[in-house]
Amino acid sequence: MTLIPHNALIVVADGGGAKLLRNAGKPGAVSLREERQLTPTNLDDDGPSGSRPEDQTQSQTDEATFAKQLSLLINKMKLNGEFEHLVLIADPQTLGQIRPILHKTVEAAMIRSLAKDYTNSSFEDIAEALAA
């Protein structure tokens, strides 16, 4: 079990949105508080990262574009010194789209990742998953 440090950034995401949380508790006693919620914006102006299969639906392209936008935001936050430790929780597909775009400094700050969809889960359920 990885202890989640005080003030660690916890990103809980799927292709349709993300919650940025902080651990307000001490290591070993996770207490989550919401910092902000993100929803996809300007998807038509900003495309997904990399090439996309021709048979991909518009919904799948939008989810991939949001994953790219979220990755770029996390990179910017790290470069601005907004977090020291990161926990990334996302459904497997979104996690797979986010990780290749993360900056090396973000990868170094990532203390844990979970490939599960917790976007509609309570803070208690997320904290419990982090304690497991």
Structure description:
33% of the residues lie in helices and 23% in strands. It is an alpha/beta fold. It has a five-stranded mixed β-sheet, with helices on both faces. A hairpin with an 8-residue loop joins strand 2 and strand 3 (32-38). The model has no long low-confidence stretch (mean pLDDT 88).
Q: Main traits of this protein?
A:
132 residues, alpha/beta, Nucleotidyltransferase, domain 5, five-stranded mixed sheet, 23% strand
Shape: globular
Termini separation comes to 7 Å
Major sheet: arrangement of strands = 3-2-1-4-5
CATH topology: Nucleotidyltransferase, domain 5
Integer tally of domains: 1
Rounded average pLDDT: 88
Please outline what is shown here.
With 132 residues, the protein is of the alpha/beta class. It is 33% helix and 23% strand. It has a single domain (9-45, 57-131), classed as 2-Layer Sandwich (Nucleotidyltransferase, domain 5), CATH 3.30.420.60.
Layout: helices, strands, pairs:
Layout: E1 9-14, E2 17-23, E3 32-38, H1 58-79, E4 86-90, H2 92-98, H3 104-109, E5 110-115, H4 123-131
Parallel strand pairs: 1-4, 4-5
Antiparallel strand pairs: 1-2, 2-3
Helix pairs in contact: 1-2
